[in-house]
Amino acid sequence: MTTTHRLRLSEMTGLTPLITTTTVADPQAAYRALAERWGTIAPVELEPGINAWLVLGHHELCQVVRNEQLFSRDPNNWRMFYEGVVPPDSGLGPMMFPRDNCYFADGDKHRRLRAPLDEGLAGLDEHRMSRFIRATCADLIRGFSNQGTADLVSDYAAVVPMLTVAGLFGLPPAQGHQLRAALIALFSSAEDSQPAAHELERILTGAMEARRQAPADDLTTAFLNHNNLRNDYEIQQSMVLMISAGYETTTSWIAQSLRLMLADNRFAGRLRGGRLGLDDALDEVLWRDPPMSNMPARYALVDCELAGMPIERGDALILGLGAANQDPRVHTDDSWLEVGNRSHLAWSAGPHACPAQRAGRMITRIAVDTALHQLHDVTLSVPADEIQLLPSPWTRCPASLPVRFTPSGPVPR
């Protein structure tokens, strides 16, 4: 940090917009520039006039996520929210305004609302789920395998988790496609994010009504019957959380893993002498391009100091998961030395660590492996550094992944 700043966060101007860390070709260069100026905690701009602290350091991020007494997940503790500084129609709303699910709760309420998610995930029939994912992947590839070209995001990486997660809740494929359009807008935190959130809620409310009339062996029915969820809003918002997190993060993980496997000579081509395998690629993506680069948020409950920066009660802190993973105190620049290292923070840490790591890895591994095995001689159609990203301050999901391959006959069922 070049100088000690004692201005209030809300008084700072000319700050770096958070979205610049996710839309650039080299996010680590953007994070390093912030760290060189500010240290391991940097003030950033979420929207014009809406500032937050971005936690860049691995140690500092762990401090924040493991201390609910100092840093709350409840946005009702966000000063800019309760003072009305953030407009009600802000694009930040779907990701940062209060909702009745475990993501936005602390302590006993968090544990009560998280239990249905944990139990639902623990109760998944992994063999049946694996068969479903493999069949879904094969069906999707069958649809374009004779063409010789495809977009492995819109035709594949975005569809596999969407159909899988929708299927877990008993939603038909057509509604799964509607969910995808709504979730892309929601994660953009742009002007259309709030209408997208309302559309997502409308779809899920319809699913709840249908399952009340005709219960089934799916997570919608399980949530409706769970004693920890006390009203329809808690049920709906728990479904919103599980579907949105499961879809967005897995899509990004699949897309970034395919990009790495096709572009990096250490992997590319297990057919062309690549020395590292699929699980190594999945882990490297979690280190270098995690599914959530920046995760909202924690809110300071008291005035305190973190890494020499003055944090005031009500300040928002964004978890820079992508930045913390590259903290030189815990990570080297030699990717060969990191093979097998899974001490990253891609899933956060503490009470709010992602509960779906095992399911997400299953979906991602099957999807990537199936594409690489069934698309013959598959290569990127554009240089890897020209691949565009979906605009979002939170994620770095490729907007498209154009590939070419040798057309083949029908994929065996």
UniProtKB/TrEMBL annotation:
Gene3D superfamilies: Cytochrome P450
Stated family: Belongs to the cytochrome P450 family.
Designated name of the protein: Cytochrome P450
Source organism of this protein record: Actinophytocola gossypii
